[in-house]
Prior knowledge:
This protein has helices spanning 20-30, 46-50, 78-93, 113-120, 132-138, 151-164, 262-280, 315-322, 335-342, 358-368, 400-409; strands at residues 10-14, 38-43, 62-66, 103-107, 125-131, 147-149, 169-174, 185-188, 198-203, 217-221, 245-250, 284-289, 306-308, 326-331, 347-349. The chain is of the alpha/beta class. The protein has 2 domains: 10-224 and 399-409, Rossmann fold (3-Layer(aba) Sandwich); 245-390, 3-Layer(aba) Sandwich (Rossmann fold). Strand 11, helix 7 (262-280) and strand 12 (284-289) form a beta-alpha-beta unit. Helix 1 packs across helix 11, helix 3 (78-93) packs across helix 4 and helix 3 (78-93) packs across helix 6. The longest helix has 19 residues, at 262-280. It is globular.
Amino acid sequence: MNSTRNGAKLWIVLGRPVRLPSALIAVEVLRDQFPGGCHLLREESQWWNRAQWQPYQRYFAGVHSFPRVKTCRGLIDLPRLYRESAERKRAVAALPVNPETDALLCLASVLGLGNVAASAHHDVYKILGISKSGYEGLMRQPDRMRFRFTTSGWLQNRVVEPLAGLERTLHFKPRINPGGDGVRLIRLQKDPDAVYDTVVILSNSGRELPAGADERKIAARFPSMAELQKFSTTDSTSNGQDRHRRVIFFGTPFLLIHNLSPEVYVDHLNRCLDYLRTHYGANCDLIYRPHPIETGEAERLDLKGFRIENDREVAELHFLRHFAEIEAVYSVSSTVSRAALNNGLNAYSLWRCFPFPETSAKFFEKVMGDVPPEFDIRDLTQPPVAYQASRKPDPNTRSFGEALKIAAEMREPISAI
């Protein structure tokens, strides 16, 4: 099928604005294959309300917004859940999607609006872009001996989704809750391969694929703002002129997450803040961005010389708007540091300077994945090393944009399910 046929359109589905930079990369690299334009489908939520995303609307042929549907807790709320789910599907189905020429690109979230779009336009060619860990999460086996439906999950799976014509989802929780993150099992009832024609698998290395992957799985590096040169220059707020460079520290809700006592955490974090003052304070603006669920953490810290920015904007959009002026990004153990790394910024984590227990340390190592040695600050007596200028991607791996081009060229729709 010729994807450059006149009028072919690309429909890009986002849940939260955190994926907007990835959508812009898709527009940049696929616009020639879709002369009918690239359209953005977004789900209305508080995350979009906090994001300064409006300046980027002009890069899309159209932006289509749909209400978020809240789950229900019981039978009384069931009619509302069905009504809103069915109405949203009808609205998405009314989009002028041509299954003969168009393509649907879902970025990360296959639930919510992603599920609605895939269900409403079953015959259009579909591409899923997702991390390897995210893909593996969608493949977790729903062992009924260990898991059971949540109340709202059972109502969605058995009543609402079949009646509304949606792909059915599984929302399970453990029969015995061990505590901690990731204990719930949330996925499509079908494997993603049964819904999406092609899957772009993203990783730090750009080499990782799930076991048994076929030619419809394309390995790629995580999206990078280095793939959006125009946004890192013409669209950045400062263009590097008449402003100090920015050094950003992203906070952690250490009063809620107790892998160390707050007193110990504060003591070590203040040493890290001194480290930033020492190495950047004379020439850079020091900025503290609290975690969205922080309460009184900032009040316990020595933030002398730092400016607190509490707008709660998602990190990826903040990077997009300020890319040209960011000198460095720091956190203790947040994946925001890894996101900054993947986006071509000098990023660092400080967790190795804290006396975390072994279980926490192993978790942080797994979460950060394959990172450059300079990324991990291990010794506060040694200055940080700016490494991105000399860091070159492996020529034997693909960028996100290159993988999308290949996926768009593989437009042979799967047989009817």
